[in-house]
Amino acid sequence: MLDVIIWIVIVAMFILSFIGILFPIVPSVLVLWVGFLLYQFVLDGNELNTLFWIIMVLFTILLIAADLIANSYFVKKYGGSKWGERGAAIAVILGSFITPPFGIIYVPFIVVFIIEMIQKRTAGEALRASFGSLLGFLGGTFAKIAIQAVMIIWFFVLMLF
Fold this sequence. Notes:
- The protein has one domain.
- Helix 1 (2-22) packs antiparallel against helix 2 (28-43), helix 1 (2-22) packs antiparallel against helix 6 and helix 4 packs antiparallel against helix 5 (103-118).
- The two termini are 23 Å apart.
- It is an all-alpha fold.
- The chain has 6 helices and no strands.
- Helix content is 84%, strand content 0%.
């Protein structure tokens, strides 16, 4: 019976990790690791090998970097400033509180536009940088979804084979 409850919690952690992508207040990576660690320390400490843990650490680093890399790349590519990049990162977090989950899309867009206008950019340049922040957010989101899916699939493949 305890095994069933632990499995339900593990699956719930995996689902919650995806919810955390839309609601950054939920620490996706941490929740994902709770699922792995529950299995390791409560159900079967021999099933997950060293290679699994090394690769999960590497994927975790990639997950954390995905947002920063995508956001920075697209804001720069579309002519945004360093302040625009930083503002977009902060605005994603604030947007998740304002009108979740849509606030994480439009709040950074507006914040980057305002920051770029304050820096004496033209409206067109500011709009372009805002569009870059939107693409950066979407790119980072899709990367995190893919990476988390690979991590979870790998976990279940080890369980089944």
